[in-house]
Design brief:
single chain, 438 residues, mainly alpha, 75% helix, globular
């Protein structure tokens, strides 16, 4: 994946114009929401629709209007995007079906009965970290644990966005570290290092961040009142959830995981007296609930595709690499590169692949060890992906929880702690064994 990368010459005016749809979106959604103090007032889909239209309008070099729309549509209809939509559809069907037959209520009841309720939050974070590390995907972890987090929050009367943020933080811990994560594969291949070496380098950044976050959750949980547990839940109804978790930990494809969960839930529903039409109706309701999420995903993918085609990403790369100097400066540049590209693409794997070649050249020129390079790429991409409200993981979690995509933002302690550890690793150059002068 390594080759000498020559960035095309793009004027400042053209580059900024190509990136302007991102500014339009952020102003419409984040700035307006912050100004009025309510993230529920401004629909994410409307903000993305306006920004998408603007991206097509300003993409004059894309040919006729029809040709520009075709560029937008090709990006929106990319295989990766459609695969994500399949996951959304299956997740919606499973979540609604499991809830209606009593699977989620039974799982929450079982959990609260055998685990101290005041420490549910730390346990949820640890479970998210473990599952994501095992399966290598933050999306799969979100699918598996968000419904459980929602019911736990409701049972204890706690803040729902906070519980969703706990799951999101843990999900990106494993996404960043796992050997089978696509971000790990992309980072190590682009930098020419072994996964095990990148894993060891990443431990110095991720593990302290996770420990600090866990301690925060433990301290916050002290003094939390006990939650009463009822006896009306059927423990057998836990089975669909067990099937999903076991299959996920075994590394089964997430679409297969969800399909197995749906089949198990259907079988239990029929056994306990539900008619098949009602069960299909529950699934249909769940699928319908994913409609807004699917629209947002398509709009974001199309808009970001036009930005890339218009030269926005190339302009960013050229500007950020033009004044690199020194070992620390090189690492800062690599971190900012992947972070900003992730902000513009809303996909951490794509961001790593996009800047991988340039990052490797910077590392070779200024003596940044490939293992540290890969660690920075993966960590910074995961940080941004966890924090942006239009990332697939946050959109899926917020849709399953029925909250605004930006609602969990203020409770996302892990990515901010991880960002702090990244900064410290650059300032103090650790792990020390990875730094060499070149």
């Amino acid at each position: 994946m390594h080759s000498s990368t020559r960035l095309p010459e793009i004027t400042t005016s053209r580059g900024l114009l190509a990136l302007s749809p991102v500014a339009v979106f952020l102003c419409l959604y984040l700035v307006v929401s912050i100004a009025i103090g309510d993230f529920y007032k401004m629909p994410l889909s409307v903000a993305l629709l306006v920004a998408s239209v603007w991206s097509i309008v300003i993409y004059r070099r894309g040919g006729t209007l029809v040709e520009r729309i075709e560029t937008f549509s090709r990006s929106a209809g990319h295989a990766n995007i459609l695969y994500m939509i399949w996951i959304f559809i299956l997740a919606g069907a499973f979540a609604a079906l499991a809830k209606e037959i009593g699977a989620i209520d039974a799982t929450v009841n079982f959990t609260l009965r055998f685990f101290p309720s005041q420490f549910i939050v730390p346990a949820l974070f640890v479970a998210s970290c473990f599952i994501s590390l095992s399966i290598g995907t933050s999306v799969g972890t979100v699918v598996a644990l968000t419904p459980l987090a929602v019911e736990m929050a409701n049972a204890s009367g706690a803040c729902l966005p906070f519980y969703v943020a706990v799951v999101l933080g843990g999900a990106f811990f494993g996404d960043n570290l796992s050997f089978i994560s696509d971000t790990t594969i992309a980072a190590t291949r682009s930098q020419g290092c072994q996964m095990a070496d990148k894993f060891k380098a990443n431990l110095w950044i991720c593990v302290p961040a996770a420990i600090i976050t866990l301690l925060v959750y433990v301290v916050m949980s002290l003094g939390t009142p006990e939650v009463s547990v009822g006896d009306d839940a059927n423990p057998v109804m836990i089975l669909p959830y067990i099937v999903v978790l076991v299959a996920a930990v075994m590394g089964v494809n997430v679409t297969v995981v969800l399909s197995l969960g749906i089949i198990t839930a259907l079988a239990l529903g029929l056994f306990y007296g539900h008619d098949i039409i009602s069960l299909f109706g529950y699934m249909g309701t769940g699928i319908d609930s994913m409609g807004d999420l699917i629209i947002v995903t398509l709009l974001a993918a199309g808009m970001l595709g036009v930005i890339k085609a218009a030269g926005g990403i190339q302009y960013l790369l050229r500007v950020l690499t033009s004044r690199v100097s020194g070992l620390r400066g090189a690492q800062v540049c690599i971190a900012i590169l992947v972070a900003i590209v992730n902000l513009c693409t809303a996909n951490n794997t794509v961001a790593i692949i996009t800047v991988g070649g340039i990052s490797r050249e910077i590392g070779e020129r200024y003596g940044v060890d490939p293992r540290k390079n890969a660690s920075l790429l993966d960590s910074c991409a995961c940080i941004v992906q966890c924090l942006i409200p239009y990332g697939a993981q946050t959109l899926l979690a917020s849709s399953l929880a029925g909250i605004a995509p930006a609602a969990p933002f203020v409770y996302l302690y892990y990515p901010w702690t991880l960002a702090l550890m990244v900064v410290l690793s650059i300032v103090f150059l650790f792990p020390h064994r990875l730094h060499r002068r070149g």
